[in-house]
Amino acid sequence: MGCSMNVSSYVYGTSFYHRFDVRPKLIATLAFSIIAFIVSSHAGLLLVFLIPVLIMLLSVGRKETWHCYSRLLPLFVLIILFAPLQERSGEVLFSAGGFVLATREGAESVLRIIARLGGISGALMLLLLTERNEMIIKGLRAFHMPYNAALAASMILRFIPYLGELFAEIRDSMSLRLEEGRRGYPILPSITALVVASIRMIPETASSLEERGFGLRKKAAGVALKRPEYYLIQWLISAIILLSLLILG
Amino acid sequence: MLMHRSLGLMKELEVSFSYSTGEEIFSSFSLSVEEGEHVLVLSPPGSGKTTLARILTGSIPKYIDGNIEGRFIVSGKDILSLDIKDRMEIVGRVSQNTDEMMLFSSVEEELSFPLENLGLEQAEIEKRIDDVLALFGLEKYRTVSTSELSGGEKRRLMLSVLFAVNPSVYILDESFDELSPFWRRRLAGIVAASSNTIIALGSHELGEYSTAFDRIVTIADGKCREYAGHPFQAVSFPQFRLGNSRLAASSLIIERKHRSSGILPAFSLSVPYFELREGECVTILGENGSGKSSFSRVLSGLIEEKEGKVEIDGSPVSVKDRRHNIAFLMQNPYQELFLPTVLDELKSTKAGDDAIREALSLFSLDGSAYIQELSYGKAKMVQAALFYLLPRRFVIFDELDSALSYDDFVRIISLYIKKGCGIAAITHDMKIASMLPGRKLRIDDGVLHEC
């Protein structure tokens, strides 16, 4: 809460990726996510993981990049610990008392999952870090997404991080009530409180939407996105990176 | 002295309302407002002001169950029979709890959404956004994330939304609260200059009201009554009992970057020295967004300072340990109340049954009441009772006076003084500031100093 509180993930910047138009950015993110499942070579998977990391480092710096990927680390640890146990046929790498703990096939499967999960999550985070929510929505609407679907997407972009922050608020609030000598916060009451607070938000949000004319819409305002300088070059760069990845993979 | 203007057509409201629980709020509540008239409804928390605002805009009974009877005639049309969205151009409100009205990630999106729904041309939308941002001093925040705004700035943003839509009737629910004295005066001027019909709702008298409103009414026994005035009584607080403990902060630098903007400089607050003794009271003043809440969060261990140290009794105290020593009553009580009932909240302090019973009585609370059904002011009373039960030596009140009557405010402060706590009270109300005992501190140009 406080300093870390931010409903939008956007970080102001002037990097080359910040200057990219939202349309090639959206298509590149989508295409990258699909290609991540197509590539299977070691070099291709490494690139799937590293490309978003590198662009993120160049766009928002080391601190923000670490902040994003550190959230994925617990998930990676769980995958490394448990995924090999699911795939125990093949060349044995580790065993204990005759029980196969890890095989080469299992290890490769883990690396594939981590590369794809890390790559796709990184690409999405990169989009949110370098593009304002309203521009993402304008981009989607420029691709003829229906107004209500775009509004729902906008609300999701607003409320999913908000729920995370609400949980942080609840956690802080709970920690302010702790007895001396106790640390942390009670997890179950905090989760219950989050659910209650979220349910409470539904009528308030619905009412607020209607009070500001949701459903009234007298005329659909057109979405006109200007073409930035080097617009075609931006498409070209996106295509080259994605095709190279596809060929290597 | 209240102002007077030339007025025209009448807007007639007559309503009876009770919640589905059977609790009656209005019984033949009747209010006539002339076209362009500015009426202030001044009554204590829990008397039904926010319920009235919700009835007028339609969120009651559509989203909150209740039995409603009556009519609100505007331009010959009964707007209570209209759906919420169809009332948008007739009546609009600024909610007391601004957080519940925020829908989007940026200031510009908040403003453009209702204007697009009105079907306005893009040029007109841009013009209205420019105008209201200038009116409420938010030009530089246009592309900023709404979560980076202070409480007062959020209030100004929601006022901007209302003024941009420009319905016939404005409902301002405690809209002067959380604004700095400068913005209160400014809002009073804006209201005074407006030709729209304005119904403002408030819990206590403010000096700024006299220049903005033609008439004051109150709510008593579910009915609208003429306001007879609140005789000013000299406030006397209990005798201080100075203790031995001392909370101190020195050479503090608190910094926060505006992640979403490249033009706004990073927020920075410097606190060369701050001291609060157990049993003492200090008042902290400053403009909206000057860093009062951030300073409170640092002292109470919710965020970390960039530089400097916080000590209790001469020993440095870690961020986490500050939470066990310093109570922080946030500006918005709902940020600290998450459990279903008042009793659940009080029990979460692990206080004994006798202490909880006493707190319920001292703060005039009903233990079985559901938090989500409480008025904003009552929620503040629960928040105060909650921290009262915790063994904290120091307490920070972040704009406790907003949405509370003076009587309730004085009662809470007196209880904490009797408890022997060191009190830091943040306020924008100069009347409150002058009535509070002890030293006065102020944040000017990013530095906290003694007045």
- CATH fold group of the largest domain in chain B: Rossmann fold
Alpha-carbon distance between the termini of chain A?
42 Å
For the biggest sheet of chain A, the summary is: 2 strands, antiparallel
Class by SSE composition of chain B: alpha/beta
The value of Rg of chain A in angstroms is 22 Å
- Poorly predicted residue ranges of chain A: 1-7
Helix tally of chain B? 13
What is the global morphology of chain B? globular
Structural domains of chain B: how many: 2
Percentage of residues in strands of chain A? under 5%
Q: Largest chain-chain contact?
A: A-B, 62 and 70 residues
For the record, what CATH class of the largest domain in chain B applies?
Alpha Beta
Give the CA-based shape of chain A.
flat
Indicate the multimeric state: heterodimer
What composes the largest sheet of chain B?
6 strands, mixed
Structural class of chain A: mainly alpha
Residue share in helices of chain B? 25-40%
For the biggest β-sheet of chain B, the strand order reads: 6-7-8-3-9-10
Average the pLDDT over all residues of chain A and give the rounded result.
Answer: 84
